[in-house]
Design a protein that fits this description.
Structural class: mainly alpha
Largest sheet: none
Number of helices: 4
Order of helices and strands: HHHH
Strand content: under 5%
């Protein structure tokens, strides 16, 4: 894992490097000061986007609106 003063990777890089993104997210979560660095913010945003993307494949929720009353 890179030092705080190393250049930050953009969100797009983290989206293409899942292993590094997950490792960075764990490293960043361990320290409040780290969480505010550009690299940690970018890794967290990439992780958020991946989580949202995985939800796109879920089936729609059926709240019963389509059911007719007897």
């Amino acid at each position: 894992v890179a030092r705080l003063e190393d250049a930050a990777h953009p969100v797009s890089w983290y989206l293409q490097h899942d292993t590094e993104m997950r490792a960075r997210a764990v490293w960043c979560a361990d320290d409040a000061e780290r969480r505010r660095t550009p690299d940690c913010l970018n890794a967290a945003e990439a992780k958020r986007r991946l989580a949202l993307g995985s939800q796109k494949s879920l089936a729609p929720i059926d709240w019963g609106a389509a059911k007719t009353k007897p």
